[in-house]
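re: ur question from earlier - yeah i can do the single chain one, its not a big deal. heres the input i used so u can compare w yours
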Amino acid sequence: MLVTLFAAALTVKVDLLGMIQQRYHAAPEVKSLTCHIETTSYRFVGTPGTEFSYDGDSYRVPESGVIELVSSKANEYVVNGRTLPLNLWPKDSFGTRTVPLPASN
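and the output i got, formated as tokens:
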């Protein structure tokens, strides 16, 4: 009987030690990650009411004078009947390009 109690106590001790001990693992090696997106969005700035087209859709600048659109595969926009390149404008640190719109005719 004493041997059985000792064996049971030893088993409990081993199980508790396994639960209490913390196991530390080395952090995984992270390689450089790239999403391959050069521009995240375009921020069109112009006179409120100015109309333009981007990626097949038409937009009108709101009263705030700014409209920001998520980047697509489009590389041009149309304003005042002229097709203009988007990637002409510099990117900020977030990948946003600010595109100044000319006043409507």
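The mean pLDDT is 79. not sure if urs matches, ping me
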